[in-house]
Write a structure and sequence with these properties.
single chain; 77 residues; 40% helix; elongated
């Protein structure tokens, strides 16, 4: 549970950092993946799971538009 909405920044950055670390699948195969994260906060961005998930999905596409390894909060703009 987040102590404040700003804690989502810290968690998002930690998740992105962890997921972007390269890892070895085999002796000859090294893999690196990326992640973008969309964030919606209750009750600011919605008061039920459906609206929060919809808004997080919109924020995800905003994050992807900003480039690889980004996160974004839902914004109505």
């Amino acid at each position: 549970m987040l102590k404040s909405p700003d804690d989502a920044d810290v968690i998002a950055l930690k998740v992105i950092s962890t997921l972007t670390e390269a890892f070895q699948l085999s002796e000859s195969i090294r893999v690196q993946i990326g992640a973008s994260i969309g964030i919606s906060i209750y009750p600011k961005h919605g008061d039920n799971i459906e609206s929060l998930m919809d808004h997080a999905d919109i924020a995800l596409y905003q994050a992807k538009d900003n480039g690889r390894g980004c996160f974004a909060y839902f914004s109505k703009i």
